[in-house]
Write a structure and sequence with these properties.
single chain; mainly alpha; 2 domains; 4 helices
């Protein structure tokens, strides 16, 4: 269920949102920004979902191992 919310912002910020995000996408943009700050359980569910993605985890591990190799090569 969705609720309507009235928010007052500076005109410049509003015009920037319309230009960058698009006039019909502002609500979704704001919701996506706010959601992780107010619904912690969504963040944990997202982490769990990402961890279940074996291809993504494999690529992440490969990236980490390559990065660690770069760190070991640095002069101290």
């Amino acid at each position: 269920m969705q609720k309507k919310l009235t928010v007052t912002i500076n005109e410049e910020v509003y015009e920037g949102l319309r230009t960058v995000i698009g006039p019909r996408k502002i609500s979704r943009f704001i919701e996506d920004l706010v959601r992780p700050h107010v619904l912690k359980k969504d963040m944990y569910a997202a982490y769990k979902e990402m961890a279940a993605d074996k291809i993504r985890e494999s690529e992440a591990l490969e990236w980490v191992e390559a990065t660690m190799g770069d760190i070991n090569d640095d002069e101290r």
